[in-house]
From TrEMBL:
One of its GO terms (cellular component) is membrane. This is AB hydrolase-1 domain-containing protein. InterPro entries: AB_hydrolase_1, AB_hydrolase_fold, AB_hydrolase_sf. Pfam families: Abhydrolase_1. Residues 30-118 form the AB hydrolase-1 domain. It comes from Epicoccum nigrum. It comes from the Eukaryota. Gene3D superfamilies: alpha/beta hydrolase.
Length: 122
């Protein structure tokens, strides 16, 4: 992938870093992809080239990839990701795609933070 990873500090958890890749930042809308339990943001490398019209956010879930190692729960992962959406997504909202365990996080986002969502694909 052409972009290098960046990090964002979760506002309520200042010691926690949620690493992510942010691609095509001039895109019309944001699509955020949530990987499975044992993956990281690089799992989406084959998908990204088809999304050149979109801003793409690829977070490493807490404790995975380049993110800080934290105790994990679906709810805390959703809280970290909604902060990322608020900080980085176009207009503070995103289409969210989840794979495997990422679907649980995406559903948790949709239930608890519907205003941050444009759509959910699980």
């Amino acid at each position: 992938m052409a972009a290098s990873p960046s990090t964002v500090v979760a506002p309520a958890l200042s010691d926690a870093l949620l690493a992510h890749q942010s691609l095509n930042e001039s895109g019309n809308a944001t699509i955020l992809f949530i990987h499975d339990a044992f993956g990281d943001s690089d799992d989406w490398d084959l998908v990204v080239p088809y999304l050149s019209n979109y801003h793409v956010l690829l977070p490493d879930s807490p404790g995975r990839g380049r993110s800080s190692h934290l105790s994990f729960s679906i709810e805390s992962s959703a809280e970290h990701i909604v902060r990322l959406i608020a900080a980085k997504a176009v207009a503070g909202r995103a289409h969210v795609v989840g794979h495997s365990l990422g679907t649980s996080t995406a559903i948790c986002l949709a239930i608890n933070f519907p205003d941050a969502m444009l759509s959910t694909f699980v």
